[in-house]
Design goal:
Structural class of chain A: alpha/beta
Distance between the termini of chain B: 37 Å
Oligomer: heterodimer
Number of helices of chain A: 4
Largest sheet of chain A: 10 strands, mixed
CATH class of the domain at 2-31 and 89-202 in chain A: Alpha Beta
Radius of gyration of chain B: 18 Å
Number of helices of chain B: 7
Number of domains of chain B: 1
Strand order of the largest sheet of chain A: 4-3-2-1-5-8-10-11-12-13
CATH superfamily of the domain at 2-31 and 89-202 in chain A: Glutaconate Coenzyme A-transferase
Radius of gyration of chain A: 17 Å
CATH architecture of chain B: 3-Layer(aba) Sandwich
Number of strands of chain A: 13
CATH topology of chain B: Glutaconate Coenzyme A-transferase
Helix content of chain B: 10-25%
Helix content of chain A: 10-25%
CATH superfamily of chain B: Glutaconate Coenzyme A-transferase
Strand content of chain A: 25-35%
Chain lengths: ~210, ~240
């Protein structure tokens, strides 16, 4: 999934990667393309994790893991970092999801359970400010419930914000007509995806 | 002569009073002013309202301040982490209040507080539970929520180099919230790894101009939170 996401990001993009599967996208940058990675805690030009023993506690990513700074990197404070996000300067962000609805609503920060401690981080700012919001997720939850739904039951992160979903079963675009399958994963039938999706799906268009 | 230096972290935080609002710089362990926080624990001021992106890790620094029962309310974006036990326990016991603010809105509320802007509009949180009860304004066809500026009585800040006038330079991603918090607090208290001569920082390289800084204390070898966690250190 991460490889497919990387393949769809245009050369020269400024990209913010969320925590988890999205972080893997950086490992699959196609040859000849240059992306600049933004981490919202104040670094443009984020590089991979350092060699063991080379970690710097003052050089970390949004997931609080040690990273490196590539040549040409820059550091800045949180006000500027979120001006990049809110101001529409970041081209692409890649996020995980708990639920995505067919009109592009995203829920990825809270189950809304009474005993859960709410924790939102930068997700609401990212989806509100970044032009292209890509979601990488398993198609269903660990217990087999659909994550692609008519309407999110969890508290929302943003309304009408998701551009495209990359799941283990398919790549699916959010269109004015709803979920549009762009491409099926190898060996996966359209019917199979429909069965695991709690909303109408438009079949892939013939090439 | 202007000289913002004080001798010790204890002297730097000595006037923080019960009920004060305190911004604490840092994102996770990067840029966290641990020595100033520990001095605040030693001081014992209570019923504090603390503004930080997180709620601390392990049992030192911010987590220890919370664990010591000195914090009445946290304003933060992300009160969870793999090493965060202290806050969740108090929260579930109903012993600490929480105001959750998206990270970018938190940063901008603080920046606005320091810049004399009482409120601003942002598209973040539109359509979410965090926008409930807030003023919504449609501007050029898009909905925005009004957010108020955030100021504090004190800020605890960590930087790399400082001069006696309070000009500051930070280290890598330890910059994070520190510069905007310096601007937004009535009294900004800074721990610097090194205090240099007044011509020791190139004016082109100053990140926080000294006008935003009130007090400086040199902490040459600051504690590192992840090491304290690994060693199981509990403060005090």
């Amino acid at each position: 999934m991460a490889e497919l996401v990387a393949a769809d990001i245009p050369d020269g993009s400024y990209v913010n990667l969320g925590i988890g599967i999205p972080e893997l996208v950086a490992k699959f940058v196609p040859a000849g393309r240059e992306f600049i990675y933004h981490t919202e805690n104040g670094l443009l030009g984020m590089g991979p994790a350092p060699a063991p023993g080379q970690e710097d506690p003052e050089l970390i990513n949004a997931g609080k893991k040690a990273v490196t700074a590539n040549p040409g990197a820059s550091y800045f404070h949180h006000g500027d970092s979120f001006a990049m996000i809110r101001g529409g300067h970041i081209d692409v962000c890649v996020l995980g999801a708990m639920q995505v609805s067919s009109n592009g609503d995203l829920a990825n920060w809270s189950t809304g359970a009474a005993d859960a401690i709410p924790a939102v981080g930068g997700a609401m700012d990212l989806v509100a400010g970044v032009k292209t919001v890509l979601v990488v997720t398993q198609h269903t939850t660990k217990t087999g419930l659909p994550k692609l739904v008519r309407q999110c039951s969890y508290p929302l992160t943003g309304i009408n914000v998701v551009t495209r979903v990359y799941s283990d079963l398919a790549i699916i675009d959010i269109t004015p007509e709803g979920f549009q399958v762009h491409k099926l994963a190898p060996g996966v039938a359209f019917k199979q995806v429909c069965e695991k999706t709690d909303a109408p799906l438009l079949p892939p268009k013939e090439n | 002569m202007i000289d913002k230096r004080v001798a010790t972290p204890a002297a730097a935080v000595a006037d923080i009073y019960d009920g004060a609002s305190v911004m604490i710089g840092g994102f996770g362990e990067a840029g966290s002013p641990i020595e100033l926080i520990h001095a605040l624990i030693d001081l014992g001021a209570k019923d504090l309202v603390v503004i930080n992106n997180n709620t601390g890790n392990g049992e030192s620094g911010l987590a220890a301040l919370i664990g010591n029962g000195q914090v009445k309310k946290m304003i933060c974006s992300y009160p969870r982490s793999s090493h965060s036990r202290v806050f969740p326990e108090l929260y579930h016991a109903g012993k600490i209040e929480l105001e959750i603010v998206p990270q970018g809105t938190l940063a901008e509320r603080i920046r606005a507080g320091g810049a004399g802007i009482p409120a601003f509009y942002t598209a973040s949180t539109i359509g979410t539970p965090l926008a409930e009860g807030k003023e919504i304004r449609n501007i050029d066809g898009r909905d925005y929520v009004m957010e108020y500026a955030l100021k504090a009585d004190f800020a605890l800040i960590k930087c790399e180099n400082a001069d006696r006038l309070g000009n500051l330079v930070y280290n890598k991603t330890a910059r994070n919230f520190n510069p905007v918090m310096c601007m937004a607090a009535t009294t900004s208290i800074v721990q610097a790894r090194k205090i240099v001569e007044v011509d020791g920082i190139d004016p082109e390289h100053v990140i926080t101009p000294g006008i935003f800084v009130d007090r400086l204390v040199e902490v040459t070898v600051p504690l590192i939170e992840s090491q304290l966690i690994a060693q199981g250190v509990r403060y005090p």
